[in-house]
Amino acid sequence: MIEERFEQIKSVHEIAPVFLKDEGRIEALFTVYFLALLLQPLIERELRLAMDREGIEDLPLYPEQRPCTHPTTEQVLRLFSLVERHRLLREGRTVQVFEAALTDFQRQVLSLLGMSEQAFRSKN
After folding, report:
1. CA end-to-end distance (rounded Å), the chain
2. What is the pLDDT along the chain (124 residues), one digit of tens a residue?
3. Domain range for residue 87?
4. pTM of the model
5. How many domains does the chain have?
6. How many whole angstroms separate alpha carbon 78 and alpha carbon 92?
């Protein structure tokens, strides 16, 4: 399992060689990679357990909404990759916030992950 996770560092996260001289920056970068490796299986486990609990056999996470029985973090992140929120500023002050428009399926996945839609809403 750990070999698979490290393989995903190169493929999913597209990690490439980085030339850092400062030890603090090297440690920080490895900490971020380590956290990504920890979060990835937690997201997958949470989603799969929720699917079992709700009696959901598959989710349309593959391209063309094909069914997926064992969702991966990569697929979940791709589902939300185009979600955007914009702020209109005038003289450094927020005039208007254009909130992210989530689909029903995105809301369902958030619910399965135990997250609120408010995670995508402005705090302003």
Report:
1. 42
2. 667 766 766 666 677 777 888 889 888 988 888 888 889 889 999 999 999 999 999 999 998 999 999 999 989 999 998 888 888 999 999 999 888 889 999 999 999 999 988 877 766 5
3. 2-120
4. 0.76
5. 1
6. 32
